[in-house]
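Hey team,

Filing this mostly as a record. A colleague (T.K.) asked me to run one chain through the structure pipeline before their review meeting, and I want the input and output archived in the tracker in case anyone asks later how it was produced. No errors, nothing strange. Just documentation.

Input sequence:
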Amino acid sequence: MKTKSITVSLVLSTAFLSAEFLSAEETDLAKKLANPIADLISIPIQSNMDFGIGPGDGTKWTTNIQPVIPFDFNKDVNLISRTILPIIDQEGFAPAGDSLDEFGLGDTVQSFFFSPKDSSLIWGVGPVFLIPTATDPLLGSEKFGMGPTAVLLKQDGPWTYGVLANHIWDVSGDDSRDSISATFLQPFVSYITPTKTTFSLNTESTYDWYNEQWTVPVNLVVSQLFKIGDQPVQAFIGARYYVEKPDQGPEWGLRMGLTFLFPQS
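Output structure:
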């Protein structure tokens, strides 16, 4: 798998680099990383491998490129852009003789959050868009969709806890493809140690209203913040288990990747 070999090499290579831990003045980066709408430019490269899919006991490797870019909307409000562009490599979904193997881009999810700069609770609301960027019908919906999104969280010492949600309806696209009405819910909690190791637990639950079906993976991830030269980076690795899924959906999976940080001076 192309994306698998590239991402694994990228993550494992960090173990052999001289990593300098962040200075005391920069330790708030770990806390900002636990906040999905922090005033921080970051580029996570997140790879997920799911196993046990379909009658062919297939695998799906999805590498999400997820730039997060804050903008100063006005003196009281930030506008946070969050993009998810997936690169997908799927193999063995169907029994021998049938081919559902494919490699390419999936559909892009683009969110915008308007978030107050000063608030006891951290929150943001805005629109979310589903953009049909898939390079093959097997990798996407061939639909354009949109809807609302929101996030609410609290940071208390080393703890961060909250929820991110959105709902997407299709508004145009190929009429022969299934309609979309999907709710996404991501409750999350994380704990940051003095060495800037972060332990995170979340679910990334999706409810398909047309098929009345939940997909509920539970993710446990460990992250470490460090520097490569002058570049702050967070590496992470974890596992997931599907407590609810469609028939022939994935059973379990792995997550790993790197987040490159660009603090604003």
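Quick notes for T.K.: The chain has one domain: 2-262. Residues 11 and 257 are 6 Å apart (CA to CA).
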